[in-house]
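Q: what does this look like with guanosine-5'-triphosphate bound?
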Amino acid sequence: MAAPANSNTSELLAHADAIKTVDNEAFAKLLAQLEKDSATFSTEERWQLRYLEAWEEVYVGNFAKAQLQLGTIIRETPIDRIRMHASATLVNILGYSHRYEDAYTQLDQALDQLPRVSDKDARFHVLGEASQLLAGAGQYDLAANYADQIVADYKEGRPRCIGMYLKSHADFLRGHLDSWNEHAQQAIEACVKVSENLFADAARQDVASLAIRQNRTKDALSLLERSYPSVIKYQYPELVTEYDVLLAQAYWQMDDAYHAEGFALKTVDAAQKGEYTEPLATAYRLLYQIERERGNLRGALAYHEKYLEADKGRLDDVREKALAYQFVKQQVEAKKVELDKLNKKNQILQLQQALGHKEVETSRLYIALLLTVLASIGFWLYRLKRSQLRFMRLARRDGLTGIFNRQHFVEETEQALRYVAKSLRGACLILIDLDHFKTINDTYGHVAGDNALKRTVLICQQHLHSGDVFGRIGGEEFGILLPECTLIQALERAERIRLAVQAVPDSETEQVPLTASFGIASTTHYGYHLRHLLVAADDALYRAKRDGRNRVVMSMNERSSFAADRRTSYDTVANKSGFR
Ligand SMILES: Nc1nc2c(ncn2[C@@H]2O[C@H](COP(=O)(O)OP(=O)(O)OP(=O)(O)O)[C@@H](O)[C@H]2O)c(=O)[nH]1
């Protein structure tokens, strides 16, 4: 793509900017040419050239050099538009390098200046980065809001396509799903219209993901298969991986273990070493389920361990992003309070001068104002502490039920197991999975499904002792660790919960029939490593499901030792409570 003949410097720079991704080789040549001629450039042209030089360093992966160059541009350029582009590019590479705190700080500064910037392209660049980065920190409302601003700025073209995609993606993530499919289709159309097929396919990925979640597997599969050939051509490995893992899930839902395994393995192969992403964790979970169904417990155990590692790494990254966002937000607030404090001090000094001759009154006023300053600082500190505590709580709790989320459950359980291991006192792990929960959602609606989850949590809580660790470890799956508990006690406790769950709900709650299956493993047979207990309890749970659901099943080793140990009252307990 050549530059138009007789182009002036501004036109050449604009041309370079336009081709920088689509024809990077030509861009690099043009850049070298422009650098030679730069002595005659205007100030704005020189800054534009410096920005393009920094951009090229990013493109070739030289982040350290790019960061220095971008930092200088941001600090020194008098041109707002160029400062915004440099800021947005810097935010992008900081986020990519997992330097989230620096990324949010930089983004905050750019957003602060944005109202003064009229250049639409520069605004689009900052708003686009903001939407993506904030979605990563779980700030979906803000992400949607920034995407909306892009859509409002552009009635057509590439930015409108990207704005609409970002909006539909943020809505998908925040669960605003009323008419969502329609909006996602509009985003796809807007992108197809301007040949931005990559963004159209990214939007289709969310559509397929929702279809899988809603068990419209055939829709998902046909959409994914249609887009797959173009997706693998983009040289954008992240999108290919997202498609691979969705295909694996869809095939698994259709009981096609062969293809599910193929796509899950492809996802694993494509993962960067040490990078833990959601697709990777999902792929390992599927591989674990596939091996488990094949009865290959050794293989299942190996994949389960990898799944736990990837899932933990992924959640750590999510938490790191969210914590960095909160940290920067609080720092910004702190700065505002500091400014407030300075303003108040100035007011006091001014008043002091004005009232200098009335000394007594002045000192009274002075004290009153000082008290006001102190009170406002105290109030701010209180709010800061409260918001920190709230945030710590949110990071550990499941949003729907308020109990520990998976990650925190794992942390607390590992700690409790370390403690009981020291004293060699036993512990048992119970996994609970609601039966046919998809049918409950499909029959009574998602809200009734959510209420059923909350009701299950209340029932479990009524059977917990202090020291027990309770958490939601998946959609309709819960875990309870019972420290210092024998297998018989765990069986009895699980059975009591099972009966309470299946009991007809009282008139105040919805009449949703509910049962649950239980899998139990104890440290006596599986030791004090959580991952071994999880695999054993999960295997027992799998058998509880396979054998007809609504039952409590203990892991294989516990069963054989129970059967062998004639001194235990296994038959009595089993018959009395219906354990299988
Ligand atoms: N309402 C609601 N549904 C959820 C939530 N999390 C997951 N689910 C749904 O739970 C269902 C779980 O379905 P499956 O894994 O197929 O299992 P199931 O239908 O319970 O069948 P079995 O476990 O084999 O008895 C899916 O349809 C999910 O969409 C949630 O927070 N709220």
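The two ends are 72 Å apart (CA to CA). Confidence is low (pLDDT under 50) at residues 565-580.
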